[in-house]
Write a structure and sequence with these properties.
CATH class of the largest domain: Alpha Beta
Keywords: FAD, Flavoprotein, Oxidoreductase
Pfam families: FAD_binding_5
Protein name: Carbon monoxide dehydrogenase
GO molecular function: FAD binding; oxidoreductase activity
Number of helices: 12
InterPro entries: CO_DH_flav_C, CO_DH_flav_C_dom_sf, Diverse_Substr_Oxidored, FAD-bd_PCMH, FAD-bd_PCMH-like_sf, FAD-bd_PCMH_sub1, FAD-bd_PCMH_sub2, Mopterin_DH_FAD-bd
Structural class: alpha+beta
Length: 265
């Protein structure tokens, strides 16, 4: 591990100023700390966001659930507000990694990192969430740019995420056994603007599956989802799965999500 200085401000303004000056933000540290240990990152200065009260908390505001960027995965999973309004989001959070990861990892950190196999990006994209920063508000459709890349600018920090409450939603994940990341994860949501389907783990970044969305907006049935031939051209290939296998998982997981949603009250 390279030497670095450590700062722990108690306000978003102070943290943003330090980040703008070159400090690396530290949220839950589930990705950053392993990189530091392996000397894959040399930030020089870390700014810990964990002592900023305004970045914490979960609340219901009208037809939205607003979650602070520093909310831990387990806090999202256990939140009565989330469980009542968006149970699929609570279930997603409850199956991230293991207990230690859920106790430390944060919503904002996961979205800012945009790991290709992370679960939260699929929820944000499928639900049409708004990512609130210290500078602006960014629609989820515009936020995820590419592998480990987002629309965040230098010194810009996520402060909260605003999730519209859907009519129904379901997240289905086929887990990679060693890492517990999603080999493929599919989040299906019936929103005010129609059905949205977001896929993680299958490509270089989370994405919406337009063919499945079109079919399910026409007929929200398992048969309709099964009839869609998932395009493999942009899907990833690695030691765990081929593009064809991932395409099959996208289809099967979408069907499972639709079946679950159809059977729920």
């Amino acid at each position: 591990m390279y030497a670095f200085t450590y700062e722990a401000p108690t306000s978003t303004a102070a943290a943003a100023a330090q980040a703008a000056a070159g400090a690396r933000p530290l949220a839950g540290g589930q990705s950053l700390l392993p990189s530091l240990r392996l000397r894959l990152a040399d930030p020089g200065q870390l700014v810990d966001l964990g002592r900023i009260p305004e970045l914490a908390g979960i609340r219901k505001e009208g037809d939205h659930i607003v979650i602070g960027a520093m909310a831990r995965h387990q806090q999202v999973a256990d939140s009565a507000e989330v469980r009542a309004a968006i149970p699929a989001l609570a279930d997603l959070a409850n199956h991230i990694g293991d207990r230690q990861v859920r106790a430390r990892g944060t919503l904002g950190g996961s979205l800012a990192n945009n790991d290709p196999a992370a679960c939260y990006p699929s929820a944000a994209l499928a639900l049409g969430a708004t990512i609130v920063t210290n500078q602006r508000e960014i629609a989820a459709d515009d936020f995820f740019v590419g592998m480990y890349t987002t629309a965040l600018e230098e010194g810009e920090l996520i402060t909260a995420v605003r999730f519209p409450i859907p009519r129904k939603a379901s997240y289905q994940k086929f887990r990679q056994g060693a890492s517990r990341f999603a080999l493929v994860g599919v989040f299906v949501a019936q929103t005010a603007s129609g059905v949205r389907v977001a896929v993680t783990g299958a490509a270089s970044s989370v994405f919406r599956q337009s063919a499945l969305e079109a079919a399910l907006n026409q007929s929200f049935t398992v048969a309709s989802a099964a009839a869609v031939k998932v395009d493999v051209s942009d899907l990833g290939s690695d030691i765990h799965a081929s593009p064809v296998y991932r395409a099959q998982l996208i289809s099967v997981l979408t069907q499972r999500a639709v079946k679950e949603m159809a059977s729920s009250p």
